[in-house]
Design brief:
- The structure is a single chain.
- This protein is of the alpha/beta class.
- The protein folds into two domains: about 220 residues, P-loop containing nucleotide triphosphate hydrolases (Rossmann fold); about 240 residues, no CATH class.
- The protein contains 18 helices and twelve strands.
- The strands form three sheets. Strands 2-5-1-6-7 form a five-stranded parallel β-sheet.
- Helix 13 runs parallel beside helix 17.
Length: about 475
């Protein structure tokens, strides 16, 4: 009968009981456990010089060779793998359906405290209770949160890889690994007929006391743990697709090593004019990834930037683009017909009142909220996407050195010019707003709340507050609500 697996891996962390699980499995004839063979410091132990004929130097030069030796070795060979082990083999392990995945976890607070005790007592394994050293560590909230974040990120990576490749793993907790019936279930998962009668007696549990007796500052620990968002309830959901970096729209100054990475809706003629006026003048455009790499290699000391807009301003710019450009005629029709957005019929926009414009803009914001949440049948256009997703897209190829804020454009562009050694010039004024009604004419608290609800990630990530409408003289006949 063909064996289900050629090898196995125990995904675990320090102080999860992986030594005990490995010792228990090693009692089964035909199972060979090699320990932490991809540990960055050793081959499963400080005294181990080689595993399956592979030395530490060999593994550093080609870690995949050791993985191949494990797969080909007689019997069912396996090893333990932690979040900070050799990253070059992780994908090969995760995508191999012939490698059985065992995921061993433990309460992260127990892990953290046990790890601090082990570091300070130098007792990593206990085989005789008489050798035990008692030491109470302090609980440090910031240190624990960093500890937790690293391990949670690794567990999410494992889970996602299993989902994408259609595999399953055998999950067990530290307490499960102390039960012989659960370990026998693991043997069944591995496709083995052998069964155990007892857990390995090689190791002794090191810190069996209650948590209140193991730390110095238990009340402080309880208070800190109560503040941790274990269920990620504060996470901002993101249903937007991954954005491309938009390289063809990148613009470089001919006279200075400055690269502008524009974000839609591209009402940025003033920024392009400023860039063109630097140095010898003119712009380089029409980049591909290849030509942009060439430009970067040739432009020593180059700097790149993009311009962030207040989310409400940018949403209004997107609305203006939808309302006034020929390319969005079909979208306007669909918004009117299917999403109850009170957009005037074609040709009737020029004479629109401030009140009607505001109602249409508010309806558009309602549509954008549903669209970015994946609740509409229409494409999530980049023109109204979150700036956060667009900046992440840029970072996939050419992360900007500076995120310029539109409300301090002159200062930020002046700083950029100084960094590349060219004379700073003030940027031209903003282009004329093509909208028949400006945002300042209709701005109110309700619109601000709608924008914050849609673009919460932008407000949080980039530090935006409420938009402050510029001082202006009200247009004659304006009936904008305030």
């Amino acid at each position: 009968m063909e064996r289900r697996f050629d090898s196995f891996v125990i995904f675990a962390e320090m102080r999860t009981g992986s030594n005990l699980l490995e010792a228990t499995l090693a009692q089964v004839p035909g199972i060979v456990c090699h320990g932490e063979i991809f540990n960055p410091d050793h081959l499963g132990g400080p005294a181990v010089t080689e595993v399956l004929g592979v030395t530490m130097a060999d593994r550093i030069a080609d870690p995949s060779a050791l993985l191949d030796r494990v797969r080909a070795a007689p019997g069912l060979n396996g090893f333990r793998f932690f979040f900070d082990h050799e990253p070059r083999v992780l994908d090969a392990i995760l995508t191999d359906p012939r490698c059985a995945k065992i995921v061993l976890t433990r309460n992260p607070v127990d892990c953290y405290i046990s790890l601090k005790i082990a570091y300070n007592t130098k007792r990593w394994r206990l085989t005789d209770v008489m050798d035990r050293i008692v030491w109470k560590p302090p609980f440090k909230p910031a240190e624990f949160e960093a500890f937790l974040a690293e391990r949670q990120a690794f567990q999410l990576r494992l889970l996602n890889a299993l989902q994408v490749t259609g595999q399953t793993a055998f999950y067990l907790d530290y307490e499960d690994s102390l039960r012989v019936d659960v370990v026998n279930g693991l043997l069944c998962f591995l496709g083995l007929d052998d069964r155990l009668e007892a857990i390995s007696a090689e190791l002794v549990r090191q810190n069996p006391e209650e948590m209140a007796d193991k730390v110095r500052n238990f009340p402080e620990m309880e208070e800190a743990l109560a503040r941790i968002d274990w269920a990620s309830l504060a996470r901002t959901p993101n249903f937007e697709p991954r954005r491309a970096p938009g390289i063809p729209r990148a613009v470089a100054a001919k006279g200075a090593p400055l690269l502008y990475l524009p974000l839609p809706p591209f009402r940025d003629a003033h920024v392009r004019a400023w860039l063109a006026a630097l140095g010898s003048g003119g712009l380089e455009e029409g980049f591909t990834q290849k030509t942009l790499r060439q430009w970067k290699r040739g432009a020593t000391g180059h700097r790149s930037f993009t311009v962030l807009h207040h989310p409400l301003v940018r949403a209004h710019d997107a609305f203006v683009a939808v309302m006034t450009t020929d390319g969005h005629a079909d979208l306007r029709r669909r918004l009117r017909a299917h999403y109850a957005v009170p957009i005037p019929a074609e040709g009737e926009i020029a004479g629109i009142t401030a009140g009607d414009w505001r109602a249409a803009f508010a309806g558009f914001l309602g549509f954008v909220k549903a669209n970015l949440a994946g609740q509409t049948g229409l494409r999530q256009e980049a023109v109204w996407a979150t700036q956060w997703s667009l900046v992440v897209g840029l970072a996939g190829f050419a992360a900007p050195d500076l995120l310029v804020r539109e409300d301090r454009l002159a200062e930020d562009l002046g700083y950029l010019a100084e960094t590349v050694g060219v004379s700073a010039i003030p940027p031209p004024p903003l282009p004329t707003d093509p909208a028949p009604v400006t945002l300042a004419d209709i701005h109110d608290r309700e619109l601000e709340t709608l924008a914050r609800d849609i673009y919460r990630r932008d407000y949080m990530s980039f530090g935006f507050g409420a938009w402050k409408a510029p001082k202006r003289v009200r247009r004659p006949g304006s009936t904008a609500p305030r």
